[in-house]
UniProtKB/TrEMBL annotation:
SUPFAM superfamilies (UniProt xref): Ribonuclease H-like
The name this protein goes by in its record: Reverse transcriptase
Superkingdom of source: Eukaryota
Cross-referenced InterPro entries: RNase_H-like_dom_plant, RNase_H-like_EbsB-rel, RNaseH-like_sf, RNaseH_domain, RNaseH_sf, RVT-Znf
Pfam families xref list: RVT_3 (PF13456), zf-RVT (PF13966)
Ranges of residues in domain Reverse transcriptase zinc-binding: 116-204
Residue span(s) of domain RNase H type-1: 305-426
GO MF entry, a single one: nucleic acid binding
Amino acid sequence: MNSLLGSNPSYIWKSIWSSRGLLEKGCKWSVGSGSSINIWNDFWLPGYPQRKISSPTILGLSIVSNLIDPTSMQWNEVLITSSFSNEDVAAILSIRLPISPTSDSIYWVGELSCHYSVRSAYKLLCVRDEGNTNLSTLYRLVWKSACPSKIRILAWKFIWNYIPTMLNLVIKRVRQCPQCPRCNSQVEDSEHAGFRCGFNQEVWHKLGFYWPNQVNQMQFSEWLQWMFTKHTNYQHAKIITTIWAIWYARNKKVHEGVTQSTVEVVIFIKKYLSELRMSMASLTHHSVRENVRWIPPPATYTKVNVDASFLLSETKSITGIVIRDNEGEIIGAAYQINLNVANVFEAEALAVTQGLVFAEEIGCLDIILDGDSKSIISKLKNRNDDLSSIRLQIGTAKSIAGRFRNCRFSFTGRQGNQTAHAMARSGRSASEDRFWLEEAPSSVLTAAAEDRRLLDPP
Ligand SMILES: [Zn+2]
């Protein structure tokens, strides 16, 4: 996925959040290297309510990494004490810096009472253009098309022009020349990269897609809307897969110097779609086994791993959640802190419920939820009402599960649940809930990389 998203996979979310003013509604920076965080304008101080540095701006200090000693990787206390008010100094020094190099990340903060609800990426998009019902419909259709999430996400990025086209790179001052790397004759904006470039039009035509001249002048979102209204739901998956494949081939040319012909791109798309349909058809015969290692979900599904860490002495539990696509790429991750938890079973049941809610909120439709508590998973699979002490939690989890288009539960051994385990562990010393999109703490990323390494070679 990284190859498609460029060097910054969270670019899209950061863009949405900053543009929507959502940072004020509960998003915060977690300090890693400090190089992406603006000292004065970003929310990065701990505690409630959200607040920025209140001390007056000092020239020469701009990013948080300026405040970190590059050798010891600890706060430069002398500099900090001499630059900020006592209140800011205390807040900054209370932030624990990572021991190993970690990049900065954005997360949502939730109070223990969950006042900040996690909004789904999909809902965010609808809110973003709530006046425009056509666009909301388009988002819904993109989201519902039977494709892996990376393909749907790329289609969204095209719609919002969050694609690193040559023109966007010029605007971001990364490049100087906005010309299309394919035809070298026109500016590469998202319309050109999606459908206007001669090369891309040839691919579209070979796949049987045509549009009139006036449609060719449309903006990307209007063009896609036109394409969707002219074609069946079945074809929508083909349309956005084609956009993805065209962009993929373009990146191969730009970054690896590999030039494919239009015929090769067309063959790739057809093969990819037929494999996708086969894997979906086989799904109906697929029985969920007990897994000893992490098993990726089928192509259009997402896998939700949950685990609970129970602290008996504090009657407190921490839920760890990691949501991944069929290639093992992280879509979402979270830990949530629960107080007044009676026992380990209640903790495990809460983990399942919270995993389901998080998956629903980030817009997953077809999920497989993996947990390593055999008794909880078997209770969830049982069609009869549960009569145990945790019947309430089991009932809640079952009713949330019913809101997905597809939801299956499966038991996994510890080995298959390492990411969620690491997630719950990383929340042990935390005082607030945290949610990530397309990112996770480094211990979880390490576990996820290990899971990917163990996947069968393609
Ligand atoms: Zn071109």
